[in-house]
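Structure ticket #2291
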Amino acid sequence: MPSDPTPRRIHPLLIAIIALAIGIGGTWLAMRPGKAHAHEAPAAAPAKQMYQCPMHPQVIQDHPGDCPICGMALVPIEGAGSTGAGHGTDTHAVVTIDPERQQLIGLRTEKVAEAPLGSELRASGRVAVDETRVRKVNVKVEGFVEKLYVDFVGKPVAKGTPLFSLYSPEFVSAQQEYLLALRTQKALAGGSLQGSGGDLLESARRRLLLWDVPRETIDRLEKTGEIQHALTLRSPISGVLTAKNVVEGARLTPADIPFEITDLSRVWVLVDIYETELGRIKVGMAAELTGQALPGRVLKGRVAFVDPLMDPKTRTAKLRLEFPNPKGELKPEMFGEVLLKGQGRKGLVIPLDAVLDAGSSKVAFVALGDGKFEPRVVTTGSSSGDRVEITSGLEAGDEVVVRANFLVDSESRLKAALAQMKEGRK
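Resolution: structure written out below.
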């Protein structure tokens, strides 16, 4: 069968459908992100200018105006983070403060300098009794108190001062035995039993001495032959009566302690020292004591003992100082200020006000010039008065902010926080 030579015509409706499909596809491809325009980066939004009060750094807004607190005109905030020379920390940023504003807030700087550092340490002290100078008086024979010669606490006594007289039947019996031994010795003198008589007399004499009977009393008994009715006990040391547990007529036994006498010619001063300061304390170190009860006077002593145990609650160790007290000016439980003096050395020092405690670290602000102030993390050492030693973070000649640094610190923290917020938005 022969073919038809006439070409077929395309229907107009089919042409319209194809054109419409091509147009929609092109539009979709043009709108797809990534492939067609993958090489083009989105334009970054311009950073918005923020304004801040010079006197109240916490007042920040995104348009010019006046501070609602003090009424001052807000000033533009420069870009957060490091500007120019210098670097910030995790919590602080370098800040720029113009000279007029520095004068307004009273900002002042001071150079870091090397200076002699005395190992001086000040602390509060409490006067206490020297425990090595306490003596308790007791009796070694049972009896009854007939007469009290020292009858109230606080009364000063000298060594050998009569304290009380004690009637003791055993004391009377011992004197009779001594006289009997004395007569026996005389009776046996020149005979074969002379040695036995001497031993008996020595035994009776030793018994009286062990009861603290004075040798003078025994000699008088031997010479006169008169038996004493009561035994007089005397003070073994010079001091002050600090305890009295007896009255006239009381019965005493060897287990009783009627008196306590304390020698206050030398006393202790107890000081609590923190563990961070213990390395500066040495036995024998010189110490000075002043107090309200000693107007215009300075007493000198020394470190006698450092407690080897720490108090777990206060994290301190007890320091014991010895002070002479010949006039009795220092009284137990009196308070005073102690100055401990060690050997001096040299180091970098700055005013104590220049160091700010930032929590986990300490920060000082260093002037870089052109109104820029950089935060520096520093490590402090010993302090003396209003000065503190810097062991790291600063060098000699650096200028640190010593006044109005709290305002600088607030602005530095805010600036660092704004920088972190901007980083988070990106």
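Closing remark: The helical segments are 12-31, 99-105, 169-187, 194-210, 215-224, 405-425.
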